[in-house]
Amino acid sequence: MTPIYIGYYFTVNPLQPATEILLAELGNVGFESFVETETGLDAFIQKEDWNEAILEDIYILESNEFEITYKFKEIEQVNWNTEWEKNFDPITVDKVCHVRAPFHEKKDLDYDIIIEPKMSFGTGHHETTHMMIQHLLKLNIENKKTLDMGCGTGVLAILAEMRGAKPLDAIDIDNWCYLNTKENIERNNCKHITPYEGDVNVIPSKNYDLIIANINRNILLNDMSEYANSLNSKGDLLLSGFYKEDLTLIKECCKKFDLEFASSLERKNWVAAHFKKS
Questions:
Q1: How is the chain split into domains, by residue range?
Q2: Could you say which DSSP state residue 94 is in?
Q3: CATH number of 5-78: 2.60.40, 3.30.70, 3.30.980, 3.30.420?
């Protein structure tokens, strides 16, 4: 039976960082699919998980710093897989990495990643995922113990394994993302990735040579100490999910934890930055 969804349509002014914060807060109360628009954010939740007071604890809606309005309605039953299939085109990154769905034709490239995203994040289309793929293609990550924090579909962990990283942990707080990552790990015949459902509290007892975190600015800033504590000396930290104007703030935060800025990529005002632990 196809689930029934409630759709919320938010108008946000100014757009950032309010949209990022709103998306993160909505994800914590059960919303499982999002579309960023020119005026704000569309968010969707299964009707069985919805109640009229669902937005009562969304802090950003009470903030005086932003003007946020919304409307909501019940969505007619649709086949969500069919919907994204109609709009999901394969992508090629730097002429060596192909990210596609199972129904797309395979290309003869170095890395062929099959992703069935459904309601999860990380098809490679978003600027941040695209740039993180570029970083992973440049780095030597052979045999590096790796963490993909906020893994979405698991696409970055999958690419990291294909490039020789192992073992790998892939963590996401969203149950759908966790389940989708498990599916995509199997779909790509990965042998060294262990998925976890949770947040940064999953990692305190672990150490990594490479940490990938494509989340959002506020979560990155809040969890930076945990990333630093879990990163081995000379380890690499890849961060994205923030805008060009936030890079200085990210650099300042990283510097407090002996994380030295190495390089960054920019794509449509989004940034993906590489730091190294001194």
A1: 5-78, 125-277
A2: T
A3: 3.30.70
User: Which helix (H) or strand (E) is 20 found in, with range?
Assistant: helix 18-28
**Could you tell me if 73 and 6 are in contact, meaning their C-beta atoms sit under 8 angstroms apart?**
yes
Q: Which amino acid is at 178?
A: Y
Cα torsion through 21, 275, 114, 22, rounded to 10? 0
Number of neighbours of residue 273 by Cβ within 10 angstroms: 24
Q: Residue 59: enclosing H or E segment and its boundaries? A: none
Q: Could you give the angle at which helices 18-28 and 217-230 cross, rounded to 10 degrees?
A: 70
Lowest-pLDDT choice from 162-171, 187-196, 211-220, 224-233: 211-220
Instruction: Using alpha carbons only, give the angle 139, 148, 166 rounded to the nearest 5 degrees.
Output: 65
User: Which tens digit of pLDDT belongs to each residue from 93-120?
Assistant: 999 999 998 888 899 999 999 987 665 4
Amino acid identity for residue 9 in this structure: Y
| Angle, alpha carbons 4-35-238 (nearest 5°) | 125
Determine the Cα–Cα distance for residues 232 and 33; give it in Å rounded to an integer: 34
What span, in angstroms and rounded, lies between the C-alpha atoms of 135 and 145? 16
Question: pTM for this structure?
Answer: 0.74
**Which residues are bridge partners to 15 per DSSP?**
none
The label of the residue with tokens 């389940």 reads 179
Helix (H) / strand (E) element for 132: namely: helix 127-138
Residue count of the chain:
278
